[in-house]
Hints:
The protein has 132 residues and is of the alpha+beta class. 31% of the residues lie in helices and 24% in strands. The chain contains three helices and five strands. It has helices at residues 4-7, 15-45, 98-103, and strands spanning 64-69, 74-81, 92-94, 111-115, 121-130. A five-stranded mixed sheet has the order 3-2-1-5-4. Strand 4 (111-115) and strand 5 (121-130) form a beta hairpin. It is elongated and about 55 Å long.
Amino acid sequence: MKNEEAIRPHIHMIDSEADALTELTLQKQRDHIRLYELLLGEIDRAAIHSSADIPDDVVTMGSEVTFLDEKSDTERTVRLVYPGDADISAGRISILTPIGAGLIGLSTGQSILWPDRGGEEHRLTIVKVRQP
């Protein structure tokens, strides 16, 4: 049985497009690694509780959270979900997005300075948390 690479057809690319796609891929890889490192850092510094002991105003998975992005002066309400349940048009954001990773664990009134996908810092302030 031939391996998958052996049966793939020979392809052609424009040099500048290949360079741009390579850079895009490497950037996405760096972004994901950085996001994962940020999220793991948040987990490491968090005080860990059982679900019965977590305060109601803390952003947890499944929470509906209203937050203010002070940089753009916009308020948004989203539900924090696992990647398979994410649907931005329905207001469900993945924990594996910069905003999702920045919101987890915060409580009403708290703020965090957190980078967006491009590395630009935004102050996110929790306005309201509603548990499912």
